[in-house]
C-alpha cells in the first residue's frame, strides 16, 4: 500500500511542497547579525589577533581595538564573519606582558587597520580555523 504513493510523482511532489510550506523542513538560516558585544567573541577575537601578530613583520604587537560588526552562522560548528579595528600597541613582539598592552599613543608609531575575517570554530572542542582575512589601513 505504501508503495503506491511513490508511483505517482505528482502526488509526492504536492506532499513535499505542502510540508515545506508548513515549515516541516529545517532550513539553514545563513549568516545572522550578532550584537557587537565582545563577551560572546573573546576566544574568536583572541585567535584572530594571535594569527595576525604571528604573520605580521611589525616590531609591535596589535590588538583588537573595536569590534565593528559580527555575523554568525550555525553549521557543523559556528562560522563568524567579523569586522574589527586593530591598532598597534606599545608592546614589542618579544614582550611578556601581551595581555595588558596599551594602544600606541605616539603619532609617529600609531597605526590601525580595519580587518574583515571569516572563521570557523567548534567551540565545544576548542577548535578554531581562520578561513580568510583582509586588512586595510584605517
UniProtKB/TrEMBL annotation:
Pfam families: Cystatin. InterPro entries: CSTL1, Cystatin_dom, Cystatin_sf. CDD domains: CY. Residues 26-136 form the Cystatin domain. It comes from the Eukaryota. The keyword Zinc does not apply. One of its GO terms (molecular function) is cysteine-type endopeptidase inhibitor activity. Residues 1-25 form the signal peptide. Keywords: Disulfide bond, Signal. Belongs to the cystatin family. This is Cystatin-like 1. The lineage of its organism: Eukaryota, Metazoa, Chordata, Craniata, Vertebrata. The gene is CSTL1.
Amino acid at each position: 500500500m505504501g508503495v503506491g504513493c511513490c508511483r505517482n510523482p505528482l502526488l509526492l511532489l504536492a506532499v513535499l511542497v505542502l510540508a515545506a510550506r508548513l515549515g516541516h523542513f529545517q532550513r539553514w538560516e545563513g549568516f545572522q547579525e550578532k550584537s557587537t558585544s565582545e563577551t560572546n567573541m573573546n576566544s574568536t577575537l583572541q585567535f584572530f589577533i594571535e594569527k595576525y601578530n604571528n604573520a605580521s613583520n611589525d616590531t609591535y604587537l596589535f590588538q583588537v581595538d573595536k569590534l565593528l560588526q559580527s555575523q554568525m552562522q550555525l553549521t557543523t560548528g559556528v562560522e563568524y564573519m567579523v569586522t574589527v579595528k586593530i591598532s598597534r600597541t606599545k608592546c614589542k613582539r618579544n614582550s611578556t606582558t601581551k595581555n595588558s598592552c596599551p594602544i600606541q599613543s605616539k603619532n609617529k608609531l600609531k597605526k590601525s587597520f580595519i580587518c574583515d575575517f571569516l572563521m570557523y570554530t567548534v567551540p565545544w572542542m576548542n577548535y578554531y580555523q581562520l578561513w580568510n582575512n583582509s586588512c586595510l589601513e584605517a
